């Protein structure tokens, strides 16, 4: 017997290019993690009809009010944004390709109508014209990569408070014309990114290193952001930068190869060009859950710069990691003293060359 229901398709975009660049084994593991995280965030609110490759087909009986639905879609989308960044910084792939999860996007298709159920090979599948239509809408003409689309058959003429919808229409031949409204998810992603944009202060840092350099902040800033010079300053053999798919610096991934052959992955979480400072997130050891560090250059009288490095960390295993904390701090202090010395030498040499 047919029932009335609400259908939601959560579709990961950019998957084909991601699969090509990463490889099937890593893509499978990462996609599984992202989809399982979405289901966990869903917490059984919507039923799972099917997992269709890189897409979740969710539904519920009856019509869910648009405002309530959009609130839950936002929660799912924010979870997706957090998980893609988390995977990027925890990437274990030796070729660094797994860091490309920041290129993935997410869109939601919402429709409502009649459906029935049928058993196929001990699996229950949803069938019906509106089920087909919801899937057809995955191929639409919306000029965005991340959005939520609501068909008129679902939302009707009801207004959604504070939601800047745009109107759209596509003709699917045998299904006929479909009118819908859609909302850009980019502002939500920007809000998620903004929450990550902080700068580690000296008072909250476990590691503090400073040095005065006889060079202007602009030159120091340029040196810190030049990949070739940064490789030398940090004593690393190679730094590969993977820019975020949406431009800018936030979300840019730096994969670093150290002299001992070990690799680390850092992700830009805050970038203040005017203030000559940035914050990055990294996961250098299994004993440390979160590491954030801020580097910056403040002006000093006479055209010199006060350069600082502030790092804070959170232990992954409180008791064991707490015992290792002094060792980790000592290692970082030693590495950064050397890095600051090399940065000073490079910047002052360049300042002298420019003044000649």
Textual characterization of the structure:
- The protein has 356 residues and is an alpha+beta fold.
- The chain folds into two domains: 3-192, 2-Layer Sandwich (Alpha-Beta Plaits); 198-355, 2-Layer Sandwich (Alpha-D-Glucose-1,6-Bisphosphate, Chain A, domain 4).
- Helices cover 36% and strands 35% of the residues.
- It contains nine helices and 15 strands.
- The chain has helices at residues 15-22, 24-42, 66-89, 129-136, 152-155, 186-196, 217-225, 227-233, 318-355, and strands at 3-13, 47-51, 55-61, 105-120, 123-127, 147-151, 166-171, 177-184, 207-213, 236-242, 253-258, 263-272, 277-282, 288-300, 304-315.
- Strands 1, 2, 3, 4, 5, 6, 7 and 8 form an eight-stranded mixed sheet that branches. It has a seven-stranded antiparallel sheet with strand order 9-15-14-13-12-11-10, with helices on both faces.
- The longest helix is centred in the C-terminal third of the chain and has 38 residues, at 318-355.
- It is elongated.
- The mean pLDDT is 86.
Task: Name a few traits of the molecule.
single chain; 356 residues; alpha+beta; Alpha-Beta Plaits; Alpha-D-Glucose-1,6-Bisphosphate, Chain A, domain 4; 8-stranded mixed beta sheet; 7-stranded antiparallel beta sheet; 15 strands
Write the layout of secondary structure elements.
Layout: E1 3-13, H1 15-22, H2 24-42, E2 47-51, E3 55-61, H3 66-89, E4 105-120, E5 123-127, H4 129-136, E6 147-151, H5 152-155, E7 166-171, E8 177-184, H6 186-196, E9 207-213, H7 217-225, H8 227-233, E10 236-242, E11 253-258, E12 263-272, E13 277-282, E14 288-300, E15 304-315, H9 318-355
Parallel strand pairs: 4-6
Antiparallel strand pairs: 1-3, 1-4, 2-3, 4-5, 6-8, 7-8, 9-15, 10-11, 11-12, 12-13, 13-14, 14-15
């Amino acid at each position: 017997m047919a029932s009335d229901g609400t259908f939601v398709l959560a579709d990961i975009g950019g998957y084909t290019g991601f699969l090509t660049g990463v490889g099937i084994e890593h893509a499978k593991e990462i996609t599984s993690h992202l989809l399982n995280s979405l289901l966990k965030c869903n917490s059984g609110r919507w039923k799972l009809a099917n997992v269709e490759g890189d897409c979740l087909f969710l539904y519920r009986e009856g019509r869910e009010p648009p405002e309530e639905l959009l609130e839950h879609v936002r929660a799912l989308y924010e979870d997706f944004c957090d998980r893609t960044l988390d995977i990027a910084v925890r990437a274990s792939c030796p070729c660094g390709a797994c860091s490309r999860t920041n290129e993935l996007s997410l869109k939601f298709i919402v429709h409502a109508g009649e459906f029935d159920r049928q058993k196929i090979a001990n699996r229950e599948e949803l069938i019906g014209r509106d089920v087909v239509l919801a899937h057809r809408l995955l191929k639409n003409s919306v000029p965005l990569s991340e959005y939520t689309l609501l068909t008129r058959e679902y939302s009707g003429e009801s207004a959604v408070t504070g939601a800047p919808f745009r109107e759209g229409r596509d003709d699917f031949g045998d299904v006929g014309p479909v009118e819908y409204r859609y909302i850009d998810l980019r502002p939500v992603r920007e809000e998620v990114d903004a929450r990550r944009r902080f700068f580690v202060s000296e008072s909250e840092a476990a590691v503090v290193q400073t040095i005065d350099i006889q060079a202007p902040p602009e030159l120091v800033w340029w040196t810190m952001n030049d990949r070739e010079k940064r490789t030398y300053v940090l004593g690393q053999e190679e730094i590969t930068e993977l820019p975020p798919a949406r431009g800018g610096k936030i979300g840019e991934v730096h994969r670093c190869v150290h002299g001992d052959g070990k690799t680390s992955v850092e992700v830009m979480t805050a970038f203040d060009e005017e203030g000559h400072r940035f914050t990055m997130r990294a996961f250098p050891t299994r004993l440390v859950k979160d590491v954030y560090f801020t580097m910056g250059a403040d002006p000093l009288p006479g055209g010199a710069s006060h350069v600082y490095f502030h790092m804070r960390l959170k232990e992954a295993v409180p008791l064991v990691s707490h015992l290792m904390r002094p060792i980790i701090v000592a290692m970082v202090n030693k590495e950064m003293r050397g890095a600051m010395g090399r940065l000073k030498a490079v910047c002052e040499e360049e300042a002298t060359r420019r003044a000649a």
